Automatic annotation (TrEMBL), chain B:
GO process terms (BP): endonucleolytic cleavage of tricistronic rRNA transcript (SSU-rRNA, 5.8S rRNA, LSU-rRNA)
Domain named RNA 3'-terminal phosphate cyclase insert: residues: 190-315
Record-given protein name: RNA 3'-terminal phosphate cyclase family protein
Family: Belongs to the RNA 3'-terminal cyclase family. Type 2 subfamily.
SUPFAM superfamilies: EPT/RTPC-like
InterPro entries per the UniProt record, alphabetical: RNA3'-term_phos_cycl_insert, RNA3'_phos_cyclase_dom, RNA3'_phos_cyclase_dom_sf, RNA3'_term_phos_cyc, RNA3'_term_phos_cyc_type_2, RNA3'P_cycl/enolpyr_Trfase_a/b, RPTC_insert
Family annotation (Gene3D superfamilies): RNA 3'-terminal phosphate cyclase domain, RNA 3'-terminal phosphate cyclase, insert domain
Domain RNA 3'-terminal phosphate cyclase: 8-341
Length: 110, 400
């Protein structure tokens, strides 16, 4: 369960890879992240991003929607409730999280 | 002060950019604000933010285009109205939670010439909205972050009237009496383990039973990890306002007179309930989650939802939760010149919004890049973010 948990929360890329794109203004923030995360991005998502390449944020026609996290200037993160419910109703995920609490038994782990 | 303004387009990260510009005294020129939208230009909430900035600074200059899609901002000195209390009325149509403004104030106040006392009234939504955290999270999870920079005295948020969305009529008072020259260089590298969970459940104008139900549902999720879960229950009355409250233009027609407005007919606003949960670790790091009930959402669902969100935040790890990450990084950049501060953050905090904000910081501070590396011995894949202080500090205090 722990391996699974680690797998799920770490992106595939190392953080050093991100620092290469972080301040490269020729790459949009979304692209920088997807490059860093490597192959976690599916093909058609990548295509979409290529289109958006030069207008930096998004296509003009859907600007009213403001679904983009940094366009909306929000503080609270956005949650996908269905995923959340699915994730936290599994015993494995819950038990894996236990090590973040003081009630965890550290002796068992090592 | 004839520095060439830094140019940005769209209203993305508007608050963050305005705060950084005000702190560093850098002029901003923002264009293409909702230029393709059906309602172009700044919203009334954003206009109100500019007005608020104007009233806590001295000598700020705004030049807004007729359509509101472009504006120029030359920040003045942060004076906090020389310590005199400020009352700022938000528009009735304000669709952002009051923490939208409070976060800005909390970042500016430490660098003010004199103490802050700002009362916000009008369309104040104290509950969480979709975008903004509730006042309880702000008070229990956001303000304590400044304690890590040794900014902790005389800081208080008084919740005078509670109100939920979509049209709020609450009132809060923000007092900040600890002004510093420079914030302390931060070294925060041990996230620790969660030792207790606290929270506030609030019900405005609805049965207090909703609170009990939310709390029970949340405890059902959280108690398997930790028995120390205590959620405070706050029951408040709704606000009675004129019948046309929150309608476009109603406030202007009334001209500030609330009595007898709409022919004396009234209604209740701000009815709703929600919950804010905060998990604290042994090393004093906090994670927070916050939500208000959607229309017709049962209290149990809200409780569970917030508990799950909290678990998600805890799973992300790091010393700073997502809600406070940018504030902490901004404060670190303000600290002593040349000193390197370090903070451990969860890897999942880094998303495109995060990257774009870091780029803004670099633009406005003139080359403040952060360093990132894996946390040593971190089996969680946490990331150490190191920030070199720019020593901007408190301009008002430098002169004094």
């Amino acid at each position: 369960a722990r391996e699974q948990w680690l797998q799920s929360r770490t992106g595939s890329g190392r953080i050093q890879d991100l620092t290469r794109y972080l301040y490269d203004d020729s790459i949009s923030p979304a692209e920088a992240i997807s490059k860093w995360k490597g192959n976690t991005v599916t093909k058609d998502e990548e295509d979409e991003e290529d289109e958006d390449d030069d207008d930096f944020f998004k296509k003009a026609d859907n600007q009213d929607e403001e679904d983009n996290i940094f366009i909306a200037d929000r503080t609270l993160p956005r949650y996908d409730l269905e995923k959340l419910e699915q994730k936290w109703s599994e015993d494995d995920a819950l038990e894996a999280l236990r090590r973040k609490f003081i009630t965890a038994n550290l002796l068992d782990e090592k | 002060m004839t520095a060439t303004p830094i140019k940005f387009s769209t209203h993305a990260n508007l608050r963050h950019r305005l705060v950084l510009a005000t702190l560093t005294g850098t002029p901003l020129h923002i264009t293409q604000i909702r230029s393709n939208s059906l309602t172009p230009g700044l919203t009334s909430s954003e206009f109100s933010l500019l007005r608020l900035l104007d009233s806590v600074t001295n000598g700020s200059f705004f030049e807004i285009s007729v359509t509101g899609t472009t504006f120029l901002y030359r920040p003045g000195l942060i004076t906090g109205n020389n310590g005199k209390p400020i009352r700022h009325t938000l528009p009735e149509t304000c669709n952002r939670g009051v923490t939208y403004y409070l976060e800005v104030l909390a970042l500016l106040a430490p660098f003010s010439k004199s103490s802050f006392s700002v009362t916000l009234d009008g369309g104040v939504i104290t509950a969480a909205t979709d975008e903004d955290m509730g006042v309880d999270t702000f008070r229990t999870a956001f303000l304590p972050l400044f304690g890590k920079f040794e900014i902790m005295r005389g800081i208080e948020l008084r919740i005078l009237k509670r109100s939920a969305g979509p049209h709020g009529a609450g009132e809060v008072q923000f007092v900040h009496g600890h002004q510093v020259r420079l914030p302390k260089t931060l070294h925060l590298q041990t996230p620790g383990r969660v030792k207790k969970i606290r929270g506030v459940a609030y019900a405005v104008g609805v049965s207090a039973g909703n609170n009990a139900r939310m709390i029970e549902a949340a405890r059902g999720v959280l108690n398997r990890f930790i028995p120390d879960v205590y959620v405070f229950s706050d029951v408040a009355k709704p606000q009675i306002v004129p019948l046309d409250y929150g309608k476009e233009g109603a406030a202007e027609r009334a001209g500030g007179v609330m009595k007898g407005r709409a022919g004396g007919k009234t209604k209740k606003v701000g009815v709703g309930f929600g919950m804010s949960l905060v998990a604290e670790t042994g090393t004093g790091c906090v994670y927070a989650a916050d939500a208000t009930a959607r229309p017709a959402e049962p209290a149990e669902d809200v409780g569970k939802r917030v508990a799950w969100m909290l678990l998600e935040e805890i799973a992300m790890g790091g010393c700073v939760g997502r809600t406070g990450a940018m504030a902490v990084l901004s404060m670190m950049t303000m600290s002593t010149e040349g000193d390197v501060g370090r903070v451990v953050m969860g890897r999942d905090i880094i998303d495109e919004g995060f990257v774009s904000r870091l780029r803004d910081m670099k633009m406005i501070f003139g080359g403040a890049e952060v360093g990132m590396r894996e946390a040593t011995g971190g089996k969680d894949g946490d990331v150490v973010i190191s920030v070199v202080g720019k020593g901007v500090g408190n301009v008002g205090r430098k002169l004094a």
